[in-house]
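In response to reviewer comment 3 from the previous cycle, which asked for concrete evidence that the modeling workflow produces usable outputs, we include below a single protein chain processed end to end. The sequence was submitted unchanged, and the resulting structure tokens are shown without manual editing.
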Amino acid sequence: MKLTGVHFLLTYQCNFECDHCFVWGSPWQCGVMTLRDIRTILKQAQGVPSVKSIYFEGGEPFLYYATMLRGIKEAVQAGFQVGIVTNTYWATDFDDALEWLQPLAGLVDDLSLSSDLYHWDEKVSQQVKNARRAAEQLKIPVGTISIAEPELSDARASMGKLPEGESGVMFRGRAYEKLVARATKHAWDSFTECPHEDLVEVGRIHLDPLGYVHVCQGISAGNVFQTPLAEICAQYQPESHPIIGPLLEGGPAELVREYGLEHAEVYADACHLCFEARLKLRPRFPEILTPDQMYGVVEG
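The workflow returned the following structure tokens.
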């Protein structure tokens, strides 16, 4: 790996349960980073010279505001650029948004606001408008993340046709359950590559509260609470990895062939076929296709 970015999944918890969510964010999810965890990971990230940025995501990171803020300050002190991804539930009024964002001014290099019909009743909510206006006043660089509806997310039919500023659904995580029925389908054996992640020269990983290093959400390359991040990067051999290897050879279709998995004839996208294959392979590779949170298994 030649990491440039480490994305902290500060928590799996979220005040929303969006149908498209990769990580099954929910009020009922469990798993939150402590300050001790953050400090451990930041120290390890400093041991990987190529890492330049740290992002705080979730779930919803603002649910644990004090921990997030201290983590951001320590990441900046450690020499990293910092970003945040948030659904802006907290920006109920412009003045309120200013109060939430004021402590972040001068620290955050990128504030990404999630705004679409999965989060709100309109594509650009009043909360997002409040947060954007406050960020601009405080000179915090700000942008919007917006995901299109499933009917517009067919990567083949809609190439270049998505509404400006919107990205297509990736049919994994909760979208595998909630949105697939609304999507256009294609032959299973046409999905011969991973279209979203560079699985060889991995530039960005997601790191969750349990310590798992995700090269794609739900595919672990190791655990930083067992093996230092620098060692995980040095030891990463994608071609021989039991999940990554087949994906590199021939995409999700090859993953299905490699393990002789039963499958349907058509799927919404490569993520749809890959996620279904991984669900079937979890008992065989429990330390790789992990944790439960990434597969919608919520503790009672």
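The longest strand covers residues 81-86. We consider this sufficient to address the reviewer's concern, and the full set will be provided in the supplementary archive.
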